[in-house]
Amino acid sequence: MKIYNFSPGPAVIPPSVLGEASRSLVQFEDTGMSIAEMSHRSPKVMGIVEEASALIRELLGLNSDYEVIWVQGGASSQLAVAPMNLTDPKQAIAVADTGYWATKAIKAAEQICKVEVVASSEATGYDRIPRDWTLPKGVRYFHMVTNETINGTQYREIPDLPVPIVADMTSDFLTRPIPIKKFGVIFASAQKNFGLAGVTCVVIRKDLMKTPPNRVIPTIFDYRTHMAAQSLYHTAPVFPIYVSMLTLRWIKKMGGLEKMAEKNAEKAAVLYSELDRNPVFQGSVVEEDRSVMNVCFRTDRAGLEEEFLKYTERNGVVGIKGFPTVGGFRASIYNAMPLDGVQVLAEMMRMFAGRFG
Ligand SMILES: Cc1ncc(COP(=O)(O)O)c(C=O)c1O
User: Are 217 and 77 in contact (CB under 8 A)?
Assistant: First the structure.
């Protein structure tokens, strides 16, 4: 049976990438060795890191103002590392509380600097992006979760602000073109849209690193360390970077970010239009802020939630159970989810409503 993996991350990987990665895991090119056995300082692996960074630069259209680094520790580490690198202890950053990952960012940054929460959609169950707020004076940057993976909201437009945006783009990096000039730092773990768990890509506007903040930054957490060492300061996660590089090649071959955006919008439209007409399921997010990546929905019919999960799993659709604190369902439809996957899920929703609606 064909399995469609709607997991929020680690998530579906393009089959061609899996094929090449599995061959290289046994033997990489003509080396007689597995890619996983090779030194991160060997010319071949250094070439892979360079190509991965070059593809990020090409796909995002980065000029020489920006640097790309690859680090471990997930986006979770970056929630602390970004404010550590950018703020003095007495400085403040601004955050709009859009949900689970904004809340995590606020908690992490509060251990490092001051945090001004400019708005929150908590009162409405994080079903929207809060809009009516003003940026407090003197803040160093605005922290933005471009896509709230757990609550299913997404900024469709990136606001114009007088300060740089530091973006946690973990669940929508490389899924659409972005106005890069608005961002000071972007970070994203690889395991959703462009690779494998174990590595995080960080894009840094270099001028922000010129004057170090007035604090001690442990060397390993200092962006300058990794920028100076071309991401090879310590043992790089070679295999996750390799799979990311293959996935980046795939994104380029598929037509780049314009094409990704077009395909992702098409997939999301299939599910949202089904939600809009289906009597058994309801979308969890206001229309204008619906995520193109994580489609969150529920059913108000008693007992049907478990039933639908069993029905979909039996038929090869896996990973749609919502996050424990949110409940309901969440279909994660990242770059590598094919259109026929969402069509199959929409059809299951129709069939299910036919039986119970
Ligand atoms: C928006 C967002 N930020 C941060 C994270 C944390 O990433 P990691 O588990 O790689 O630390 C996730 C993971 O799902 C996420 O979706």
Answer: no
Residue 63 is encoded by which pair of tokens?
């000029």
Q: Of the candidates 289, 282, 331, which has an alpha carbon nearest to the alpha carbon of residue 98?
A: 289
Read off the pLDDT of residues 23-69 as tens digits, 9 standing for 90 and up: 999 999 999 999 999 999 999 999 999 999 999 999 999 999 999 99
Query: How many Å apart are CA 282 and CA 299, to the nearest integer?
Result: 6
Q: Is 243 helix (H, G, I), strand (E, B) or coil?
A: helix
pLDDT value at position 352? Answer: 96
- Residue 222 appears among annotated catalytic residues: no
Flag whether pLDDT at 302 surpasses 90. no
pLDDT of residue 79: 98
Share of the chain above pLDDT 70, in %: 100
Q: Which of 189, 193, 199, 332 to mutate to test the pocket of ligand 1 (most atoms within 8 A of CB)?
A: 189
Residue 165 — φ and ψ, nearest 5°? Answer: -100, 135
Q: For residues 237 and 232, what is the distance between their CA atoms, to the nearest angstrom?
A: 10
CB 84 within 8 A of CB 215: yes
Mean pLDDT of all residues in 131-136: 96
In 199-328, DSSP assigns E strands to 200-205, 281-283, 294-299, 317-318
18 alpha carbon to ligand 1 midpoint, in Å? 22
Q: Are 80 and 111 in contact (CB under 8 A)?
A: yes
E strand or H helix that includes residue 248: helix 238-253
d(CA 209, CA 212): 6
Beta strands in the chain (DSSP E): 4-5, 66-71, 92-97, 114-120, 142-145, 147-148, 153-154, 165-168, 183-189, 200-205, 281-283, 294-299, 317-318, 329-332
Residue 77 burial (CB count, 10 A):
17
Indicate the DSSP class of residue 39: -
Does 133 qualify as catalytic in the annotation?
no
Domains and CATH numbers, the chain: 15-253 (3.40.640.10), 256-356 (3.90.1150.10)
Task: Evaluate whether 94 touches 142 at the Cβ level (below 8 Å).
Answer: yes
How many angstroms does the Cα of residue 79 sit away from the middle of ligand 1?
Answer: 10
Q: How far is the CA of 74 from the centre of ligand 1 (A)?
A: 7
Nearest by Cα to 200 from 226, 163, 228:
226
Q: Is the pLDDT of residue 86 over 90?
A: yes
What is the reported pTM? 0.98
